[in-house]
Write a structure and sequence with these properties.
Blueprint lengths: L2 E9 L4 H17 L3 E17 L2 E12 L2 H13 L3 E9 L13 H4 L33
Antiparallel strand pairs: 1-3, 1-4, 2-3
Amino acid sequence: MPLYEHVFISRQDLSNTQAESLIEHFSTVLADNGGKVVENEYWGVKTMAYKINKNRKGHYAYLRTDAPASAVQEMERLMRLHDDVMRILTIKVDAHEEGPSVQMQKRDERSDRGDRGDRGPREDRGPREDRGPREDRGPRERR
């Protein structure tokens, strides 16, 4: 069967248990249609980049599934109809990665960011007066 990864965002005013029960609900939908959830993760409440349905935050959930396309389509249909689910994303993958997702890994384990390089410590850059008056730098754009 094909392998999929799903991420969905539910409303911020749900409790943690209600958000986790949505994961169980959609897992049973997949199981009833011949699929199975390999792994699920509740990522918690996160701030979104922009408002969705007047919500600034949302409960994020992640599912790794092994299911036929018809089961995934039924689950997505029910997610779109559910009032508590704001956004969904489904991706077909060739293989599931081992271990926790990137969101669940500790920050120090990721090590994607390098050191500060040649920028040096903040206090060595000099005081603000060395940069000149603000008028010389041109007008700032207003938002």
